[in-house]
UniProtKB/TrEMBL annotation:
One of its GO terms (biological process) is regulation of DNA-templated transcription. Keywords: Nucleus. GO terms for cellular component: nucleus. InterPro entries: CRC (IPR005172), Lin-54_fam (IPR028307), Tesmin/TSO1-like_CXC (IPR033467). It is found in: Nucleus. Residues 215-331 form the CRC domain. The keyword Nucleus applies. Its main location: nucleus. Transmembrane segments: none annotated. This is CRC domain-containing protein. Residues 30-84 are annotated as: Disordered. Belongs to the lin-54 family. Residues 43-53 have a biased composition (Acidic residues).
Length: 440
DNA sequence: GAGTTTGAAACT
DNA sequence: CAGTTTCAAACTC
């Protein structure tokens, strides 16, 4: 795999992105509408593309991509409009200015000049416009470009930068997300069961239509009559409905019996029907922590399987737990989080730095900020991994080239189209970040 | 789908 | 309270 090292692409000069925040906002607004539709189309009804297919598809693109890179390089370098004697390229996390003749590469500091650092990162273009360019050139029906970018980020990033992938595949089944949402308690939804963390083999793709809330998982009780806490329906304070239980008494037909059972359970444990996951006092600012009230007592699962109620609820184990050899502590799951995203993104280091600076900031006028949480995923840069920056850049370059090929190439049009594309990319990043945080 | 493993709930 | 049994779900093959 030493050959994909390249990632070298050129950018026509500096690709603008100068002020005009109005345009940006407008673009963002517009994108919002379009993007939403795209998202629905993509997520709402799972596309027929299963993951294998997705991967294959991507590999295909990657391949084309490499070819394309060279084409682009030559075309741009050769006949390109009166470009300067250099172009920009990205390698890993760094932007280089490359002389067309000598080939000398000069690293560029992101902070030079007055421009925002983001500018340079965005400007630095790179490998193939999977989104637009490749499909076009290859005659592949121009698919929904909006979906493309993301896919490229998902699989592509992994393949290119070696380390564990950062991004989930877009079409990952979020199946069976949140369950247990006791309507009785206004405390809010209490996620309890999440079936899989990792993408499944896709043996049975497409099953639930809307995995989201509202669809409780049916019980399969045999001997409890669904009148003991063994039964999840009963434990959730719900009647059995569309369950597979035998001899179910957790229904209106057995209301008396049921009431008695509730009473009994309540005697045994007054908190029996309270949500097991309590919303702890908000730490920091807008971050509500959820913790298991009555800790788990795991002995063999290391709290790393759904046998563990803490793990199942995606909350860390606490001192309330009496688990043995727990691997679900706060730090454990934070490390996990890192691995998932990190993928050697230099930006992650900025994270730590930023956190430190912030915590030791001289501006201590804040009142109760004693225990401010780092929580990387709350920070924008957390999502600006190499892959993301790269993919975004690709999109911008692709957009630029497409626009360039247009008949009447107006400079203003160019700027607009690129900003527009940028807005779309941003929105996509946000959406996917949201999704990511939603399931993990 | 059958069989095993697991830990909460129930029971003593 | 601790130790044991029961139970349905999570998991494995
Ligand atoms: Zn039941
Ligand atoms: Zn039920
Ligand atoms: Zn039932
Ligand atoms: Zn546990
Ligand atoms: Zn625990
Ligand atoms: Zn634990």
């Amino acid at each position: 795999m030493g050959d994909h090292v390249v990632n070298e692409e050129l950018i026509e000069e500096e690709v603008i992105i100068e002020e005009q925040p109005e345009d940006v906002m407008a673009a963002l607004d517009q994108m919002e509408a379009e993007g939403a539709d795209a998202l629905l189309g993509e997520l709402g009804e799972d596309e027929d593309e299963d993951e294998d297919e997705l991967v294959r598809h991507h590999q295909q693109q990657q391949h084309h991509l490499q070819q394309q890179q060279q084409q682009v390089a030559s075309s741009s370098g050769g006949g390109g409009g009166g470009a300067a004697g250099h172009f920009y390229a990205i390698r890993g996390n760094q932007v280089f200015k490359i002389d067309r003749f000598s080939g000398a590469a000069t690293p560029i500091r992101a902070t030079t000049g007055s421009g925002a650092p983001l500018k340079l990162q965005v400007v630095g273009g790179d490998a193939g416009k999977q989104q637009v360019f490749v499909p076009q050139a290859q005659g592949i029906a121009a698919q929904d470009s909006k979906a493309q970018v993301f896919r490229s980020m998902g699989a592509g990033g992994a393949a290119q930068h070696g380390p564990p992938a950062g991004y989930r595949v877009v079409s990952q089944p979020i199946a069976s997300g949140l369950n247990r949402q006791p309507a009785a308690y206004a405390g809010g939804p209490v996620p309890t069961t999440v079936t899989f963390t990792a993408p499944k083999p896709a043996t049975k793709k497409r099953q639930q239509h809307h995995p989201m809330l509202g669809h409780r998982k049916p019980c399969n009780c045999n001997k409890s009559l669904c009148l003991k806490l063994y039964c999840e329906c009963f434990a959730n304070g719900e009647f059995c409905r569309d369950c597979n239980c035998k001899d179910c008494h957790n229904n209106l037909e057995h209301e008396n019996e049921r009431s008695k059972a509730i009473k009994t359970s309540l005697e045994r444990n007054p908190s029996a029907f309270k949500p097991k996951i309590d919303f702890m006092s908000a730490k920091g600012r807008s971050d509500v922590e959820r913790l298991h009230q009555k800790g788990c007592h795991c002995k063999k699962s290391n709290c790393l399987k759904n046998y563990c109620e803490c793990y199942e609820a995606k909350v860390p184990c606490t001192d309330r737990c009496k688990c043995c050899s727990c691997r679900n502590t706060e730090s454990d799951r934070q490390n996990k989080m890192r691995e998932k995203f990190n993928s050697a993104s230099g930006l992650l280091h900025l994270a730590a730095a930023a956190a430190d600076i912030r915590s030791s900031s001289p501006f201590s006028d804040d009142d109760s900020d004693v225990d401010e949480k780092p929580d990387p995923k709350a920070m924008p840069w957390f999502y600006m991994t190499d892959e993301v920056v790269e993919a975004t850049t690709l999109c911008l370059v692709a957009q630029a080239e497409e626009q360039e090929a247009a008949a009447n190439a107006d400079e203003l049009d160019m700027e607009r189209s690129i900003l527009r594309e940028f807005g779309r990319c941003l929105q996509q990043i946000i959406e996917n970040a949201a999704h990511m945080n939603q399931e993990q």
